[in-house]
Amino acid sequence: MKDIGKSYISLEREEGFLKRQLPRLKTLALIIIAGIVLGTQIYNPNKRTIEAIVGLLLLLLLWRVSTIAALWMLLVTYPFPFSISWGTSNEIFMLIITLVILLRISTGEHKFTIDPKIRVPLILIVTSYVISFKNVNPALMHICLVNTFNFLAASMFMFCIINYVDDEEKLRKTINIMMISAALFITFTIFEMLFPGRTLIPNWLYTQHKARLVMRGIRMGGPFHDYELAAEFFTINAFFIFFMFVRSKRMALRALFGILLLVDLFMMFTTITRGAFFSLIAGTVYLMVLSKKDLSFVRFSYLVVGMTVLLVVMEGVVARYTTSGSLFERVLATTFESGLVPSNRVGTWKGAIERGMNNPLFGQGAGWDFAKGLSTGFWPHCLYLFYFNITGLFGLSAFIFLIYRIIKSSASGVRASLATSSYPEALMKIMHVVLIIFLFDQIKIEYLRNSKYTYFIWFFFGLIIATHNIINKQKRERTAAESSL
Predict the structure, then answer these.
(1) Measured between alpha carbons, how far is 450 from 454 in angstroms, rounded to an integer?
(2) Sequential DSSP letters for 60-121
(3) What tens digit of pLDDT does each residue of 30-87 get?
(4) What is the residue-wise DSSP string for 144-182?
(5) DSSP state, 411?
């Protein structure tokens, strides 16, 4: 009996030892498997394998992290999606986030509302997309569904930003994450400038240029693979980076954002895009006009001279020492027809108007083959004509209605000081300026033609509404505190 008892005790000890070691063995096995997979992909990268790994990691993370953290993840990764049969991984990412939100709403953990300022315009825009389906060419129905799905996912991104960026701390963190995203975008474009035509991961991370004997005159398109939209992205982010430079109190952070601003503007020059350059100048002048109370004549003079010298130096460096070309030469070569219409827009705008008049009320649907815009017919090269083409006057009017509501919300920061006002009010001033230059620049280009850039624009719309709500919330709290005293 004693031998049996000893055997039983030793067996229990062995089982206990195995139970204690099992988690370690599992971890060790996972590390070995991960090492094998990682080593294989470094040596011979396979797009599908990497997609599966990233998708699995994202799914696990989304179940474990908060909703706002998931949105921050999307804000970092949206410029670098991989393609799927129904769009890109961004749509799947946003779909999973939406499902998680619905699950948390059903358990009472979260509440979700559609902000009344944009409720009616968004309903009208969605309705315009649905109605336009009746005019879609059946051969392009698949593309129409993909583009509509992308629009719905991007607008859901906006709704999530409005709902979950609901205080100043989250707003600050969101802008910090936005700076990380911009830095990654800039880094990729620098890689494109240094190694044009190089592929990191086939059909995923690559630069869209054909190798030739003399690599000169290349317009950088960044992760968007679109030099005009990349230029606008650099211009818009220049104002946000400047805002972070002004608001930073530590010298190290100021130096960091100062360098990031210089690199951002430098990369804007490598796109050789006139519209972004004019938008930068117009936005800077507009910001100076709004900030005239904070600017003495001496400061104003320093800024004008300093910016002029900076732009001239950057133009010279880009034109002489990079694979790109001269932006100033392209600006000086610009000609106009029919008043202030650039000569290279006359044909595209005229054709867009003629196409739009085929279905002027409800458009021809989102089944436009954007990926082949230069071979099956030119893009309208104007956002407003683009909406007119795909959703008709009904959809265009709904979008203008939405823009009116967003401009009205952004106006709450016009009188703020970038240096001394509260963080949300100062940020709103920058976003108001950015919104105006975006609407100005979109006269000659359209964000809808690029599924990646669409996410940034709807994120930006949502950020304006979220910031407006935070400003009003802080005003109510100050009023309540004053009344209690």
Answers:
(1) 6
(2) HHHHHS-HHHHHHHHHHHTTS--EETTEEHHHHHHHHHHHHHHHHHHTTS------HHHHHH
(3) 455 555 555 554 445 555 565 566 556 666 666 677 888 889 988 998 998 877 766 7
(4) HHHHHHHHHHHHHHHHHHHHH--SHHHHHHHHHHHHHHH
(5) G
